[in-house]
Design brief:
By secondary structure, the chain is mainly β. The protein has two domains: about 300 residues, Glycosyl hydrolase domain, family 43 (Tachylectin-2, Chain A, 5 Propeller); about 90 residues, Sandwich (Immunoglobulin-like), CATH 2.60.40.2550. The protein is about 5% helix and about 50% strand. The strands form seven sheets. A five-stranded mixed sheet has the order 18-19-20-1-21, with no helix packed on it. It has a four-stranded antiparallel sheet with strand order 2-3-4-5, with no helix packed on it. Strands 6-7-8-9 form a four-stranded antiparallel sheet, with no helix packed on it. Strand 10 and strand 11 form a beta hairpin. The longest helix is centred in the first third of the chain and has 18 residues. The termini are far apart.
Length: about 425
């Protein structure tokens, strides 16, 4: 009996240490990291007005972001961007990777992507507000997508159910050869989060005791909405970040923890990430995508200003620290660097990222397997910062190539950098 009591006490202590672990967020940059193309003077593209709903996956030393873009004269479609550091993103030339069609209502909204042992699965929703359904698209390479013939894979409930006004925002984890989904659903007034499971990622069973995370009281920051979940399974506990809506219709990001992904405990001191006064996200923040990598939580989220332009920002957090949001610090590369190109192998375009600690004369050249220079990507003076350059190899044969970066500081010519890396063109 005594041993049993000790075991119960230890279990409670371990549960407390695990579940009460909290996170503290710091904006990495003072500006957004992904913007509508109109902010760069490009109009008529699928994302020239809004970029929202990021989902980020880390693979092959590269970060891949799928996001939703809105065109001023069109609908919402899904695009993709890549990054080596989470701050500097490059949109794919082939965007949108999953365009809206006439049957999609207001468009398609990406929410999560899973890469299992066989394929990529993209979970998105479409339709019109309060009748959304959850759909699936499949890809072998993460770039070219085919909509699943059995769509929709999750639909709203019967009249009078908690989810009778639509289901959307599906966040899926694949672990131990099974799939878990947390999703937002609504009745005529409130939004809550439900749970479903699947053995193949295509056929889903809703949890019978849904919802698993419910909206708060009228005085709470999440009175109207607990939705748009992002879930990380770290150690023995699940962490969930969600979009909230208060009684005054203000959006922020809340936080909850669980040992099993079903029974959740909210952090009790309000939102963990909110709008930042006099910033690009000074009106609202929403739709977080969180991952745990290199001993940090990383959050990409949507934010907007009072003029209504949605953009995507980036924040990080350590673990076991008080819940506050700190302002960003300025950051420049501390040294020269040349990253591995992405994708590699590639056809016909690949991206080369490099960084400069100070203003430098930079040359980046492409060589074939015999050492012959076949192309020059960069040959100019550039300011300090993180850089990306695309090589389009449509006119070159398949094979192994090399790219070499040479950089010399303008102010201190003795500060030099030379590095060569290999890339493979596969047609």
């Amino acid at each position: 009996m005594f041993k049993q009591i000790i075991r119960i006490i230890l279990t409670f202590v371990l549960w407390t240490l695990t579940v009460c672990t909290q996170t503290s967020w710091q904006r990495v940059t003072s500006s957004s990291v992904l913007n509508p193309t109109s902010m760069m003077g490009v109009y008529g593209t699928f994302d020239d007005r809004y970029v929202v709903s990021p989902f980020v996956l880390a693979e092959d030393n590269v970060l891949k972001m799928w996001y939703t873009g809105y065109q001023t004269s069109g609908k919402y479609s899904i695009g993709q961007a890549v990054s080596w550091d989470g701050k500097h993103w490059y949109g794919l030339r082939e965007n949108p990777v999953l365009p809206a069609t006439s049957s999609d209502g207001i468009g398609k909204f990406v929410f999560s992507v899973v890469h299992d042992s066989n394929e990529y699965k993209m979970y998105y929703y479409q339709g019109v507000p309060y009748s959304y359904s959850v759909n699936l698209a499949i890809s072998t390479d993460g770039y070219q997508w085919t909509e699943y013939s059995g769509n929709p894979i999750l639909t709203r409930g019967e009249s009078g159910d908690w989810d009778d006004e639509g289901v959307w925002a599906p966040y899926v984890l694949f672990e131990n050869n099974s799939y878990k989904m947390w999703y937002q659903a609504s009745d005529s007034t409130y939004s809550n989060i439900g749970y479903a499971t699947s053995v193949d990622g295509k056929n889903w069973t809703k949890y019978t005791s849904n919802p698993v995370l419910e909206h708060g009281n009228v005085s709470d920051f999440d009175y109207y909405t607990v939705g748009e979940p992002s879930v990380v399974h770290h150690g023995s506990s699940f962490h969930l970040w969600y979009t909230s809506t208060s009684s005054s219709m203000v959006n922020a990001i809340g936080y909850a923890t669980s040992l099993d992904g079903i029974t959740w405990t909210k952090y009790g001191n309000g939102p963990v990430h909110s709008a930042s006064p006099s910033s690009w996200d000074d009106t609202r923040v929403a739709r977080a995508s969180v991952m745990f990598k290199d001993s940090l939580f990383h959050m990409w989220y949507a934010g907007n200003t009072n003029v209504g332009t949605w953009r995507i920002g980036y924040a990080t957090s350590g673990i076991d620290s008080p819940l506050t949001v700190k302002e960003p610090t300025s950051e420049q590369p501390g040294e020269f660097g040349l990253e591995i190109n992405y994708p590699n192998p590639f056809n016909p375009t690949t991206l080369v990222q490099y960084h400069l600690p100070e203003q430098s004369f930079v040359t980046i050249s492409i060589f074939d397997i015999l050492g012959k220079e076949v192309d020059v990507l960069v040959e100019e003076i550039q300011d300090a910062g993180f850089k990306i350059k695309e090589w389009r190899a449509s006119d070159y044969p398949s094979g192994t190539y090399f790219y070499r970066m040479e950089a010399v500081s303008v102010q201190n010519p003795s500060n030099k950098f030379i590095e060569t890396k290999k890339l493979i063109l596969m047609k």
